[in-house]
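Curious: why this fold?
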Amino acid sequence: MASMELVGPTPENESEFNIEWVTPILKKQLEKEGEIDPDSVNVVEVKAFKNSVQGILSTTFVVDVDFDAPNENGEKELQTKHMFAKVPLKDDPNFASVNIRELVMLTTVLPQMQAYLDSECEGFFKLPMPDVYHCFYDGKGTHDVFVLGNLLAEDYENFDETKDFDEDHLKSLLECLAQLHGTGLAYKRKVGGSHDKLKEEFPGLEQQIQLNDVMENEKIQEFFRQHFRAFLHYLEETEPALTNHTGYMKKMHKHILKVMTSLDKCGFEKLITICHGDAKPNNFLFRNINIEFDDLDLGEDLDCEGLQSILIDWQGGFVGSVANDLMWSIFPFLEANQDKKAHFYLTALKYYYEQLTVVLESFNSTLDDLGLPNTFPEFASLVKRCLVLEFIVVTVVKPILMIPEPEKLLKWHKETEKNKIRRFKKKVVKPEYNEVFTSPRFAGFCHLYFKIATALGAFQELGKIYFDVMKDTMFEADIDDYDSDIDCPEPDILYRIINAPVPKMPQLVIPKWFGIPNFNVHWRRLKYRKGLHAAITCGMIAISIGMLLLNGHFKLGFLITWGLALYLFI
């Protein structure tokens, strides 16, 4: 396990990385590796440089440590350790939670899983993570630092978005995820088989909100259903590009709880494991490897070339569905290969299924042992339902339960909907952004999630679920047609009166011999008469002139007008 001991104030620039600060970290790492006696080491020089690629959560440095140590013959020789130091940003409480998660992942979760892997796995793989030299974080800033192995010095390369969106890189990162997820699933089985037991093993990790948090509480159910359309309405007002998607989802409002019940029973919990939480391609590093196999039967050596990947930036680690990591890793490849999107998606799911099977077999487990489908079509269907669940939870369930001012949102939504059928519109005050969303970046983030869900077929799968629910509902005896948005009584008495439906006036049927023309018929004829506007204009001018003169010409104007009227109506 990485050290949580103090080693002196954390350097803030290149010049502050010195021998005194580096020596205890180096000796601790050498002791862990067990190949060099730490007491025989003498640090000669420390060279630190700011990393060329900086993140938004920390300042990173590349640190090369030259030291003297005895070789196999006992002679002193110069060696180098390549380190990578991450210094978390200070004075920003918003970043504390992600730094704590990374600390838990690097010092507790991953080392514990690696120890389990070393003792139980019959394969040859190692968890896809860098070597951890030293980690300390208490949020005060004085000693906060994460010191890891420098992967670039081990021939790893950053993901290049200009040329790496190919099938080889996709398969490599999926193999990496299968190793992480498969080890987590095997470990979950060891501790009891449920995600609750897995969470108990790692109390420092967050667990994503589950649907049963909603489904098992009637008050939360009612709150969610009541605010479902209101939330989607506000979201589409904020992000008009989502209108088609939110409009489609709003149609499900009467059956949304049944849709969620169906998802809750799909078996998603079988795919809950330890996840990276931010498995975008640029959080993987890649290197080419060449493995030699000595084939005794053929009497020759065989070379195997491949692409190896490793995960970095573990701030998002959590206990959750594999769908989260898969969506972030696969989607960019689909976007970059629009002409082969279907092929890449099918290839990705199939390769992940195969690799996960291999990893579980190395723990003497099978998909059946974990209650997972053992055929690819069934497995792919489960993954897609997990994607729908991930989408619903992140973009709808969790945000609705966290609305800061739910009453304001609901009132705005209902008044806006009622204004569509009112004769006299009521002025409606729209809630402020921060009264509905808890994050200033939520709408943009939600837009991306909707885009990913569309690309990965989550909406198509959601449509299938909704269709099945609707089909079952058709045969129910009691159908609830009540619409709380428009069917509830108008709270304002005045508006209830002035917007009351106008009674339909009875039509009187007048006999033709009575002498009164049918003006409805004449008006329909009038619309098709040529020169209509000109005739009316002339008549009005004649009346106006006659009235102004107030003499005999008034009669002339009146006669002209009636003449035109007789021409038009008869």
The longest strand covers residues 58-70. The mean pLDDT is 85.
